[in-house]
Amino acid sequence: MTHLVQKTLLAILFCLSFTMLLFAQSNNSEFIYGDFLPDAPELAKRGPYSIGVQTINLLHKNQLNVLQHKDGKTPTYDRPLTVEVWYPALIPTSKKEIEVYQEVMGNFNDPKRPLKPFTFKGRCLRKAVPKTEGAPYPLVILSHGYTGSRYLMTYLAENLASKGYVVAAIDHTESTFRDAAPFPSTLYHRPLDQLFVLDEMDRLSQKGSGSFLAGLVDAKNTGLIGYSMGGYGALNATGAGFSNSAFQQFKGMSGGCEALAERMAGSPAYAKTQDQRIKAVVAFAPWGMNSGAWDSTGLAGLTRPTFFVAGSEDDISKYEKGIKAIYDGARHANRYLLTYQNARHNVAPNPAPPEANADGLPLNEYLRYADSVWDQRRINNINQHFVTAFLGIHLKKQDLGEYLQLSEKAVDGNWKGFKPRTSIGLEFRHSEAK
User: Fold this and answer.
1) Which of 108, 255, 98, 214 is nearest to 171 (CA)?
2) Domain count, the chain
3) pLDDT single digits (tens) 27-45
4) CA atoms of 390 and 151, how far apart (whole Å)
5) Which structural domain, as residue segments, surrounds residue 15?
6) What CATH number does the domain containing 337 carry?
7) C-alpha–C-alpha distance, residues 385 and 159, integer Å
8) pTM tops 0.90
9) Could you read off the pLDDT of 173-219 as tens digits, one per residue?
10) With contact defined as beta carbons under 8 Å apart, do 36 and 381 qualify?
């Protein structure tokens, strides 16, 4: 072999090795939804637990089928609910803590937006063995918007599970990308789905249930998190009874069905549904106030600690007459309001997947996730930080109060947990219960 050939082969080998090194570095530095950015606030970091994930299928029997109301009668049906559960787990050294989620974009009932499958990664392992040391763990229930899915906020679910929570995210039947149905179904069923999943998670956590959740969940110590219609449901599930205006609107949309009466403020049936296992609520951009869902009487029923998150330019739930009005009216609750200045409605979801950028897709596939002012990855980190503090205080009795003792405007001083100059664009309010 000539000297020239040897040099050429060495050069090729060097190039191949260098390329493989770059590829490996690229893989190792791959950003996955919820990862900690350089300007992320302190509590956004993942916790000490590795994470497992499993899917469970529930059946809520004999529920009113409000979409089939006719001639003054409302039939019943068995309502299926798919729930994704993240939990502290033991990860074998031979396994990678990576999951590939199967998702779709589009809308089931919109021919202009056909369903398009896509995948994205998470930092957890499917069917990993639960970590029983430290159990039972507080329960967190996640509820998506209309339309959405149980995978809409994986960045938050994984982050909380890594900090010692069991997180159950619901696919709300007739309200997901895959099966969207007329709105009355979501209006009626949303709080009922949330409360049913709480009951089922409690049941499955009991010894002898035969579930991987047996002994793992402290359902008597639950946090309820909802985004948009999920926030609407969470507020009703925890004391904000609907107004007569909401009832009349629902009745008009559902052909005379009066089922929503059982969720109205002042209803004896509604009062009996208040579940004291729910200790704290996080409401991201909750829908409803701008459409008359609540009046002052209904909002006065909120008594649990509640953390609201909003965009000041929310064009779906509205801000001054929507989310901030709920915050102001919930006078009997110890409550917080985090505001992203100039953000619109999308203050809760994962970032938009790359597939949403494809040529020819409707802009709404991208705008389902993205905000046109804020980096969604940064919103995710900020949400992780504040939800960690809030739930840590109320579900784990952690000494994190200083992270919620902030000046109203970020420009008035550095906020606890934020690096210098990185809290810009945020506002924070806190009001004690009266």
Assistant:
1) 108
2) 2
3) 457 999 999 999 999 999 9
4) 22
5) 1-30
6) 3.40.50.1820
7) 10
8) yes
9) 999 999 999 999 999 999 999 999 999 999 999 999 999 999 999 99
10) yes
